[in-house]
Amino acid sequence: MSHPLSSMNTADATLNLRGVSRSFGNAKALDGITLSVRDGEMVAVLGRSGAGKSTLLNLINRLIDPTEGEIWCGERNVSQLRGRALLDWRRESAMIFQRFNLVSRLNVITNVLTGRLAHAPRLPKLIGRFTDHDRDVAIDALEALGMAEFALRRADELSGGQQQRVAIARALVQQPRIILADEPVASLDPVNSRAVMEALRHINQHRGITVLCNLHSVPLAREYCERAVALAKGKLVYDGPVSGLDDATLAVIYGSTDALAEAH
Ligand SMILES: Nc1ncnc2c1ncn2[C@@H]1O[C@H](COP(=O)(O)OP(=O)(O)OP(=O)(O)O)[C@@H](O)[C@H]1O
Ligand SMILES: [Mg+2]
Fold this sequence. Notes:
Layout: E1 15-24, E2 27-37, E3 42-46, H1 53-61, E4 68-73, E5 76-77, H2 83-92, E6 93-97, H3 108-113, H4 132-144, H5 160-172, E7 178-182, H6 190-207, E8 210-214, H7 218-224, E9 227-232, E10 235-241, H8 247-254, H9 257-263
Parallel strand pairs: 3-8, 3-9, 6-7, 7-8
Antiparallel strand pairs: 1-2, 1-4, 4-5, 9-10
Helix pairs in contact: 4-5, 5-6, 8-9
Bound molecules: adenosine-5'-triphosphate and magnesium ion (MG).
Adenosine-5'-triphosphate is lined by residues 24, 27, 29, 47, 49-55.
């Protein structure tokens, strides 16, 4: 296993997982994960189906809690956050899913504006009661993703790749510091997959947002991410540059040659 980043100063790392495990019944979905991700990194999370990739992102976002270990962001113990502080953390760590979950009969700009609800001071704002500032932020996000011209189109009139870019714009208006993308391109064709990966890279590079992206495709990881972490049966089996994903390493990650062929 290669750990070229292990010498970095973890004190200034954005996100630190320290010995994190998560069990479901007797089964350990994640087992003793220690990992640091600095501000502004774009990291691919690789592994076979069931390896623990979604569990990892869900733990970071606090959709679930660890059974052992701690997650820190700077000086904050993420695993201990409650109430308002937990809501703030969820706003800061926006999730993107394979299914875009847009409201199909609403137009694009309204879908994006729903991402601003995380900024609502107390009671959720009603649709149509967004401020001019909210609208400016939403248009700005659509422009960043090359989707501004579709602002008034119904969400269900867009292609899958376009809908995913709208979902990313909706995440962007939360003004997150981290985007947790769980197989964002799994249901897209190659052209749309690349458009979505380009969009994630764009916001990573131009807005400094950290991106953790679960991927089934090693070529996409190689092309769009500098660093990969890989899980196998809940354990971290690789953490290093994507250039280190040689055949021997991929065999450890994917186990059988069949699974390896799928990931190529
Ligand atoms: N809520 C749950 N209840 C019980 N077991 C779960 C739950 N969530 C995940 N698991 C188990 O934990 C393990 C890891 O699941 P996880 O969804 O994190 O894998 P994954 O790497 O995201 O897989 P995939 O590539 O198929 O999405 C699996 O064995 C899964 O069955
Ligand atoms: Mg998953």
